[in-house]
Design goal:
By secondary structure, the protein is an alpha/beta fold. It has five helices and six strands, in the order E-H-E-H-E-H-H-H-E-E-E. Strands 1, 2, 3, 4, 5 and 6 form a six-stranded mixed sheet that branches.
């Protein structure tokens, strides 16, 4: 990573046992729609062992960061969208948005609200550094 370059992360939420193909398609769609390339992907502890997420990171040759629960909870109030289902299961109003924000820390911002693609949600956050 270059000094001074903005870091872009894709926060991902999904239903249990979502396929790697679905994850890859969702990431590709999000990347294309927002004109960004992801430095890594992030998710919440509740999704840490999802095979589709793990395999997608491997195939893309990027890291899958499972954010710490405390960081995930701290980022919850900065999400743009609210899902009662997400709140019930993960403790955050938007798992993918909170994951992306938590992965980059308190100075991060969302590029846009989450995208819902079938059983997957993707949110893109940036560190906000100058490019």
């Amino acid at each position: 990573m270059d000094v001074g370059k903005a870091v872009i992360v894709a926060g991902i939420g999904c239903r249990k046992d979502t396929t790697v193909e679905a994850v890859l398609t969702a990431l590709q769609d999000a990347s294309r729609k927002h004109g960004v390339k992801f430095d890594f992907i992030a998710t919440a502890p509740i999704k840490a062992q999802e095979p589709g997420l793990l395999e997608a990171a491997t195939r893309l040759n990027i890291a899958l960061v499972v954010v710490a629960q405390a960081d995930f909870e701290s980022a919850a109030h900065r999400t743009m969208t609210r899902s009662e289902t997400s709140l019930k299961h993960s403790g955050s109003p938007c798992l993918c948005e909170a994951s992306a924000l938590a992965a980059l820390g308190p100075g991060s911002t969302l590029i846009a609200p989450r995208m819902v693609m079938g059983d997957i949600t993707v949110a893109i956050a940036t560190s906000g550094d100058d490019e």
